[in-house]
Write a structure and sequence with these properties.
mainly alpha, homodimer, about 0% strand
Chain lengths: ~375, ~375
């Protein structure tokens, strides 16, 4: 993430502290079950120390854009998304057999090494798998705990709940489509984009924004439990909100604007990730060079490269894709082949187009001026990053 | 489960219908992401068609015992526990490499077979693992969705939420302790009992009862959002409730009574499971004969058998424990060795003692007479079962 992203930094530090406080409380619950839970608690704390906090940032600004006030409660509710994400990453790394995450060994590798180092009984890999499944489950469950203990009014939580529910069903459905696509050998750009829609665009951007908006009462005007909708919280905003008249219209079009911003931005975000997954600097990404190639990931970048490759380029890509022993020389070779197809340039063009589309969707959308600026800034930060 | 368990049957049919309705709705959400999600939706529906619905039954009677009225909302909230349990089972079967569940192939085996049968790319086992992780995650997330959409009053859900949270952290912590115990080769009876406390006694019985009580307002007297506590719902109960005077005292001692009933009953329940895991009839248990031996499970029964075994008996047990190829002849031999140690008789004595202790805890507890009878009946049903 670019260091000058104020819209993200504003939220990130407070999300960090909220997560630390939550995890420290849970540590007590775990240790009450037995001191043997200490490595599990430490592994979780280590994983949660990293992360860009993108989903909480979008949730926060989705709330602010709908007129929600800055307050500690929305920070806690938004931070809960980071627990879901951490749990999904633990499970994802296990499924992908990834060795590293955020510059550290992945959770299943940590526990595998623990088992191997102590010469315990049975299979070290099975132990690592079991620990990763259980710690991921814990993190996923803690999402709800932190969300409901955020201190937001009950009516707000009740409005947000269905959005959180939908978001989770979509992300796991998207991951299954990804797994299936890899199995059936779907190498089309369309197939890869469908996975991106559910696994990234909705999950990372659109739904967090919708969650923030629902918590603030947008889209539910007329119900008696919408404390922040169309109310005084928007006053002092300099007239940016309420542009299209009635509250119902404003809320409906705010949700629509978040979708119009979130979906293209989500695709751009994933395309940046695709490029970093092949061309990124390990010191910045926290992942080994060329990791997506090594893991044989079915990304949009690779789908485009394949669709444009000459026979020679295709041969190089096929030779290294999914090769667990891919080394520095191989990485350089496959990078040259992919770049040679023009796929990287095409992805950069797509990123530019999608970011512009996302930012354009903010124009005229019925939200506070501060939120509009923050979301425009976030759009750039999420897609111009180097790690 | 014994067919004559009215206290369970009363709840089970309605829980079944609530789960069917919920899963059918979720199927629509999944298919909206793509028709490729159909096998996942079907696998989940198949898994949820089975099950004893013990946790929902304890939650329901925990609620009724605290004076909560019979209503569809508590059935839905209680049924949510079955989704958590199904998700945990999917993950548990994957960790244990179990082939079957409820008489069907386990979820990871279903998807492994799907991959192998179609000759898809990559490893069929990895595909099965990935699908099982994701479907388990979905089920675990749906717990919260069904719980919060149950229709119970917001105040009730707010009171129940921390109990549900604690219950989930405990069960995954207990599973980790189990995994760890197996790895470090802890063969003590005390070690096995500690796992049973968290993984079974609290999770299956104590916490579901506490959840029902918290939803009904027990233990939180004096707060302004306890609609069913100490109120008219207990009238007409024939004076069974409120025996020890003030509402706060009643609620406190109801929660304590549920613990005093739930923990010994949980141990008895698990001991029955341990016996069925070695001596059960596959037609009744839905699992192959001797499955716990084949999987090398570290049960209390096996810990007792080891602690009492002669050198010859220990040799037989060690020979077959964890042997994936254990056949009918081996099962018969290991059964004879275990029974010969007297461990089965000891477990039966422990079951009897713990069930008596559980039922005695109901005597004089401040709950409705109907609930007391139902819980006494459930104690027998949960421990006298053959499958």
């Amino acid at each position: 993430m670019t260091p000058d992203s104020a819209a993200l930094g504003h939220v990130r530090d407070r999300v960090d502290r909220a997560l630390q406080a939550f995890v420290s409380e849970q540590r007590g619950v775990l240790l009450a079950a037995g001191d043997d839970l200490r490595p599990g608690a430490e592994s979780i704390a280590g994983l949660l120390a990293g992360g860009k906090r993108l989903r909480p940032a979008f949730c926060y600004w989705g709330w602010r854009g709908a007129g929600g006030p800055d307050c500690p409660e929305i920070i806690k509710a938004a931070a809960a998304l980071e627990l879901l994400h951490a749990g999904a990453l633990v499970h994802d790394d296990l499924m992908d057999a990834s060795d590293t995450r955020r510059g550290q060994p992945s959770v299943h590798r940590q526990f595998e090494a623990r088992h191997a180092g102590r010469g315990w009984h049975g299979s070290a890999a099975a132990f690592g798998m079991g620990a990763a499944i259980l710690l991921g489950d814990l993190l996923i469950c803690w999402t709800d705990e932190m969300f409901h203990a955020s201190g937001l009014p009950p009516g707000a939580l009740r409005r947000g709940r269905p959005v959180l529910d939908r978001m989770r069903t979509e992300v796991f459905a998207g991951q299954y489509l990804d797994l299936l696509g890899q199995a059936i050998g779907d190498e089309t750009v369309a197939g890869a984009l469908r996975v991106v829609e559910f696994k990234t665009a909705k999950y990372t951007i659109e739904r967090p924004l919708h969650l923030g908006a629902a918590l603030a009462g947008a889209g539910l005007a007329g119900t008696d439990d919408a404390p922040y909708a169309g109310g005084g919280a928007l006053t002092g905003d300099g007239g940016a909100a309420g542009r299209d008249g009635g509250t119902a219209g404003r809320d409906g079009s705010l949700t629509a604007a978040y979708t119009a911003y979130g979906l293209p931005l989500g695709i751009a975000f994933q395309l940046r990730d695709d490029i970093l997954g092949v061309f990124g600097d390990p010191a910045q990404t926290g992942k080994p060079a060329g990791d997506d190639v090594r893991e044989g990931k079915r990304t949009v970048l690779l789908a485009i490269a394949r669709s444009r490759a000459t026979a020679g380029q295709a041969q190089v890509i096929d030779r290294y894709l999914g090769d667990p022993l891919l080394d520095g020389a191989g990485t350089a070779e496959v990078r040259a082949a992919i770049a040679g197809t023009g796929a990287v340039a095409e992805c950069e063009r797509m990123i530019g187009r999608h970011v512009s589309e996302a930012i354009a969707a903010l124009e005229g959308a019925p939200m506070t001026g501060e939120a509009r600026e923050a979301l425009a800034e976030l759009a750039v930060a999420a897609t111009a990053r180097v790690g």
